[in-house]
């Protein structure tokens, strides 16, 4: 079957699904000889709608084989295993779905033809449920605590309710994909399927003059002699769509939907999603690239229009990460940044260590949740960490502590604790490849060649460190790790 035929059948099937003619839609989908990963996904959803779990599993298997990075397909197969009470396989698929998110808070599939947003916190929510079904309540709690790092404001209550349920060892409902929502073919491609008559119909005319014996086809009409007064817009620029951007960093695609670009390329952004991915066109190829790899470029249609293309690339870092619930850090400028206040359902816990940091935990959290957060921040096992309510280390907090007494010390949703470790920490140092100067009080300013001590990794693009007596965050792309870092 040709691509055009596949496109036509795909469009016909989703049209039937829009009319809720599910059986007809499924028959059309199954008639497609070589379905792609998205079509297999649609088939799986229709099978799930009919409660045909075995057929749904096979369809999602095929979808994943076609595109092993399609996170939503892993999510759906995980739900299929969950409904079949195969909880170990369900847990494994939710883990694969989370891995396919690659650290993103969400993936918006709108650019790929699916009006759905897959949230990392919802994937972890379902993973926790599968672990709870297996009786692994501690793992379930750990995954829900992890979900708090990826939650959005709209999903806060969902994660908090699930966490409270696991503390009581009670099950909760899974987050399910809306089965009536399907991947759709590109509407622009579908529009091209319509046959177009560029010549029009021949028109037979005859003269109204009795003596004129002419009859036949209308002759060609003369062309307009007077052209436009304004100069013609260059064809290459007139054909460009979207907003022009310069590529700042090299990007290697991991899926067929992504586009390879290198620094200096000029791409045109057709659509930017909330998940920080942009749908772009480059050399007549289209695909997804991270938006924080790009910088907007102004192109003038004047006679010097191409001069803007030769300007040097800026050293702007990637998009700033959100720092929710963090304690202010005094910067070199002496100013203190604003702090996101804790919600009514969470505490902000400030930890005094060799450096200060903060974590957010739900109100009434048990010791395992608190120590899990601190353990993740320090990248150390919980057994190597000791917490106390005072600087002298006398009021020790451990698994036997009544946490109600600890949380009573909180004031205004904030509490301060002290931390020590029994394991020596590995010190990692960087050297600055470029100077970094920012007016943001949370940032760490430095000069090229400065030495920076790593305190924590905020995410893959931003680190927290110390340099010249100052503490703050800085872009990872501006530094290089020194060899021979020691404990």
From TrEMBL:
One BP annotation, GO: superoxide anion generation
Organism: Nothobranchius furzeri (Turquoise killifish)
Boundaries of every SH3 domain copy: 240-299, 425-484
Regions of compositional bias (Polar residues) in chain numbering: 329-341
This protein's GO CC annotations: cytoplasm
GO molecular function terms attached to this record: superoxide-generating NADPH oxidase activator activity
Protein name: Neutrophil cytosolic factor 2
Family the UniProt entry places it in: Belongs to the NCF2/NOXA1 family.
Keywords: Cytoplasm, Repeat, SH3 domain, TPR repeat
Spans traversing the lipid bilayer: none
Region described as Disordered: spans on this chain: 306-341
Subcellular location: Cytoplasm
Chief place of localization: cytoplasm
